[in-house]
Write a structure and sequence with these properties.
homodimer, mainly alpha, Multidrug-efflux Transporter Regulator, Chain: A, Domain 2, 2 domains, 6 helices, about 0% strand, DNA-binding
Chain lengths: ~170, ~170
DNA sequence: ATAGGGTCCGTACCCTAGTACGGAGTCAAG
DNA sequence: CTTGACTCCGTACTAGGGTACGGACCCTAT
C-alpha cells in the first residue's frame, strides 16, 4: 500500500478530513508533510493505522488525552524504560477493569436475553442487578476469573462534613 | 441502607451533586421526590446503584444516550419482549466488540511490559503493532457496515467525488 | 430563634471532540 | 489553458457532558 492523500486516508480510517487535521493539531499524529513537494499531507499506511487505533481506543472509553499517553508508550531505547513500564502497567490495570465491567454488562444482557425468549410473561430483570459489586455476578455459569478490582477510587470530594464548599472539584472523566 | 440526601448519594456514587441533577434532567434517573415532604430529593440504594452504573458504563465508552437504552432494557411484562430481546442482542454484540478491542490493547500492553523489564536496551515496540486487525487473533470484522455505535456518526461526507458539495470557489489567477 | 450547612431552581459557563466555512493554492485531465 | 476535484489554513460553531453561581428556602443542633 502506498501513501494516501488526506481524503483517501480519511475514507480508509473512516473519519472526516477535518478530524485528521484536528488530531494533528492535538499532537496525536505527526504532520505528514513532504517538505519539498506541494505542501499536501501524505499518509503512510502506518499513519492510517494510527488513526484507526485512535478511533478504536475512543470507542472503548479512552479520551484523546489518554490515547496520547497510550501511543507514547513505546519501548523507545532513549526513553526511561522504568517509567514506560509503570505507565504501561497502570494502563493495563485500567484495561482489565474495563473488560471486567463489560463482562458484567454482557452477563446481564445474556440473562436478559435468556429470560426474554420472544414473547409472553417474564420475570422482572434489569441490568443493574448484575452489576452490583457487593453481591457478585453469579448468573450463568461463566467462570469469573478475577477478584474484580472494583474500580479504584479516583480522587473524590471528601470534605468530611462539608467544611467549606463542595463545589470546586475537577474531574477528568 | 436507608435513603440518602443528594449530597450523600453523590458521595456514595462518586459524582457531583450537580451531576445527579443533570442526569435527572436528562431522564436517566427519575425524580426521587417525596411529594409531601420537604421537596428535597431522597435517594434509595437502588437509585444510587443506578448512578454508579451510569458512571461505569460511561467509562467503558457508552454515551448517556446509549446508557439510557441499556437501562430501559428490562424484562418488563408490559414491554414488547421481542423488541427488548433484539435490542439486548444488539447491545451484547457491541459489548463483545468492545471487549475484543480492549483485549487487543491489553495484549499490546502486556508485550510492551514484557519487553521492558525496567531498564536498558529494548526493541522498538508500539501498541499499534499488536492492534492491527490483519495479524492478530481474528476479531469479528466489523469494517464497512458497522456504524461504530459509540461515536456519533454524524455527518460524514461520503459523497465519493463530492457530487454536490462544491463549496469551493474559482480563483482568477 | 438562629446560625450554618443543605437543598432548590434556573441560567450561564466550560471542556472535549469534533464540524463547518471561507477564501485561496495545487494537480491532473481534457 | 481551463476545469473541477482536492488541499491548505484559520477561525467559528456545535453537541455532549457536565460545573458553577446566585438567590432563596429548609433543617437541625444549640
Amino acid at each position: 500500500m502506498k501513501d494516501l492523500t488526506i481524503a483517501k486516508a480519511a475514507r480508509e480510517a473512516d473519519v472526516g478530513v477535518e478530524t485528521i487535521r484536528f488530531y494533528e493539531r492535538r499532537g496525536l499524529i505527526e504532520q505528514p508533510r513532504k517538505p519539498q513537494s506541494s505542501g499536501f499531507r501524505v499518509y503512510s499506511p502506518e499513519l492510517v493505522k494510527r488513526i484507526k487505533f485512535i478511533r478504536q481506543a475512543q470507542q472503548i472509553g479512552f479520551s484523546l488525552h489518554e490515547i496520547q499517553e497510550l501511543l507514547s508508550l513505546r519501548a523507545d531505547p532513549a526513553a526511561d524504560c522504568s517509567m514506560v513500564r509503570s505507565q504501561a502497567i497502570a494502563k493495563l490495570e485500567e484495561v482489565k477493569r474495563k473488560i471486567e465491567q463489560l463482562r458484567q454488562i454482557g452477563f446481564a444482557l445474556e440473562s436478559l436475553i435468556a429470560v426474554c425468549p420472544g414473547r409472553g410473561g417474564l420475570q422482572a430483570c434489569t441490568i443493574l442487578d448484575t452489576l452490583e459489586p457487593d453481591h457478585g455476578p453469579p448468573p450463568p455459569r461463566i467462570r469469573a476469573d478475577g477478584p474484580l478490582p472494583a474500580i479504584p477510587p479516583k480522587r473524590r470530594r471528601q470534605n468530611g462534613k462539608f467544611g467549606t464548599d463542595n463545589r470546586q472539584q475537577r474531574r477528568a472523566t
